[in-house]
Specification:
Length: 519
Amino acid sequence: MVRAREVLAGGAGIAFVILVASSGGCGGSKGNPLSGEDGGGDDATATSSSGANGSSGSGTSSGGLFTSKGGDAASGACSGAGLICAVPQGCTTSVSGTVYDPAGANPLYNVVVFVPNDPSGALTPIKEGTNTCSSCDVSIGDYVTATTSAADGSFTLTGVPAGTKIPLVVQIGKWRRETFLPTVKACANTPIVGSSLTRLPARRSEGDIPQMALVTGGADNLGCFLEGVGLDPSEYSAPHAGGRLDIYQGQGGGRGGGGGGAPGLSTGGTAGDCTTDNPNCVWNSKANLEAYDIVLLACEGDTYDPAESIQKNTNKTPASKQALHDWLDEGGKVFATHFHYTWFKNSPQADFQGVATWLGHSTGADNALYNIDTSFPKGKVFNQWLGLVGALSGTQINLTSVAESVAAVNAPTQRWIYNPARDPQDGQSNNTKYLSFLTPVGGIPIKTADAGETGAQYCGKAVFSDLHAGGSPMGAIPGACSGPPLSAQLKALEFLFFDLSACVSIDSLPPPPPPQPTK
């Protein structure tokens, strides 16, 4: 079991993690981690109980939850209360399995897996939206044992309570799902086969999902990508209409191509309007953005920014770019593709301009083999994961419809994917195709009581991708989404999307372990 100490600094509630102990590591399940999939359907004997408001379900401690080998009788004087007193002593009781995406198709890395201490499975409520700086979106609360999933999604929890109806939670950022294990045998390992008990939630009735907004574009299919990773179509809705993915319609076509314009919403109301600069567009104000945890910006085929666009119907202003900057600084998360480089290159703030060397306009039509940057720990895991899910061609990844918006990144911005050969338009090699940076740029200095500086704290995260999430949209979403399983390119974006969803941590370092239990 791996644990860490979580520290709160100042009135803003800034949480950062300091590693203090490690034993056992992430563990791993025996056999092929990609086998035994069942399509993500719910197991008939399991109960998913964490609702949209983070409240627990109706699981109880009745029905023999505490076995004869658990509790005070077997362990002596149990100093705590709850399921921790049901952990058999003098032997190892464990649970192993693999964490999957909401579709139940691909394994996921760095997902926290834990057994809450409350016998009913009660969990800490998750607040929607982001308006304060916190490196982790929500505490995992008081738990008996916790770990994180390995590169292949596998995990082994040791020190697990024995009995029936044992709660098990999988969580990454604000994605959280709780199920109940029918039986955990004392002094033995209980393997979980398939994905039904250990996939992330696909809909609110199954658990917690971050509140997201998507601005559609005529040159990128991010809306159907999210359905491909398993987000249920019922979660697509008009802004603030109850779904976990609010749809705003952006621009389409432009000089970068794109057929029928940006898609609207096929169900759940009418998409919000981001086709013009208007008060209701998600990026128009920091207050609008604060309703969300993650904002996704699909390529519109042009910047539609008066700073450089040839289009007359622009929808971005210096004020909106300042609002996005300020929201990211206080903890927001943004996933931007291709022409949305304008939020950084043409930002009113020099810190965003300086995260990379921006090249500007490109057609987004490159097709080639690209390299994964394995010079940092998560890059190595990313490369390993791509191999496990069959997304590599030899040691590289084959990508299509790739743009040329970025040359080099400037530290501490992290490069993830790059072209080792010369880009056709720019003519330079080693240009970046996917990058991430933490906000505020450079971090907030953290000082000890003796005023000695100890490092920096970050609040939010932005990622920029010159990879498109599929071709031009074919119609209103999610109704027009009916594509095949994820391509290699979309699998790469899936890993990176859930990495964005995770607690904010420095990308050049290994992810921190779960925080110490709260009491």
